[in-house]
Amino acid sequence: MVFAVGISAAQTISFEAASVKPSAPGARESIAGGPGTSNPGEVHYSGLSIQRMIMRAYGVTANQVSGPEWIASEKFDIVAKLPHGIMPQQIGPMLQNLMVQRFGLKAHDESREVAGYELQIARSGLKMKESAGDMLPSAFPDAKEVTYVLQWDRTTRRGTFVLSNGMWRLSGRVQSSAELTAFCETQIHLPVVDRTGLKGVYDYDVDVAPPPRPAGRGDNSPDAPAAEAQDPGPDFATALERQLGLHLEKKKVSIGVIVIDEIARTPTGN
């Protein structure tokens, strides 16, 4: 896999203007604005680490970014003005260019063999339905079942919802097989390689047991309801196979990795 890091391919399109500042201590990641929102001319990132910038810019996962430890912990706020008529898929290249210009990013890509999984069609057969193309909030899970929205990301068209029985619903709309694979990686925290052969785009809802809460803390959202699941529910891999007809098979997999050669800890001035 070639990512074209830090070369002309990343410099063909830019934000019209961008402010980059260190985030306040304890800032949580969020994104607002951009195409399809009430503020299409600007995009606001809060609490975004360099690692997460690279992930958003190149469409990769944390397993595919290699660099100094601080790239995952030091966070930044970005307010960027978008060119008129920009499409969502063009924001990634603009982030690439911003990292080159403001952080002096220099990197290369390489292939590594690591422990991971292959995503396959289960023996029971695929249970997902092809998408009708609806990416708007009407594609949310049934409001009668949902008691709390933990997250809905318009860019990735994925979200997490708390159901009335305490279970978590992981939802995606208009997802390609590559996006399904990336979704699986976010849940199992290991590399996943697509072996499904799927060509279309799909909608899914996966109901799983909520993650265990750290001792002395609530769940990952400080505002989320405190109710525990009435039914412990399946783990992610089990739910994926039973509900979507997708199987995760343990394998040694070869993945493309972005290796950071140079990156400034402090961005150049606004």
What's the short story on this structure?
This protein is α+β, with helices and mostly antiparallel strands and 270 residues long.
Can you give a write-up of this model?
The chain is an alpha+beta fold. The chain contains four helices and 13 strands. It has helices spanning about 50-60, 90-105, 175-190, 235-245, and strands at about 15-20, 30-35, 40-50, 65, 75-80, 105-120, 130, 145-155, 160-165, 170-175, 190-195, 200-210, 245-260. The strands form three sheets. The chain has a five-stranded antiparallel beta sheet with strand order 7-12-10-9-8. The chain folds into two domains: about 10-115 and about 255-260, no CATH class; about 125-245, no CATH class. Residues about 5-10 and about 215-225 have low confidence and may be disordered.
Record the SSE blueprint:
Layout: E1 17-22, E2 30-33, E3 42-49, H1 50-58, E4 65-66, E5 75-81, H2 91-103, E6 106-121, E7 129-130, E8 146-153, E9 158-163, E10 168-175, H3 177-188, E11 192-194, E12 202-208, H4 236-244, E13 246-262
Parallel strand pairs: 4-13, 6-11
Antiparallel strand pairs: 1-5, 2-3, 3-5, 6-13, 7-12, 8-9, 9-10, 10-12
Helix pairs in contact: 1-2
Question: How would you describe this structure in keywords?
Answer:
single chain; 270 residues; alpha+beta; 2 domains
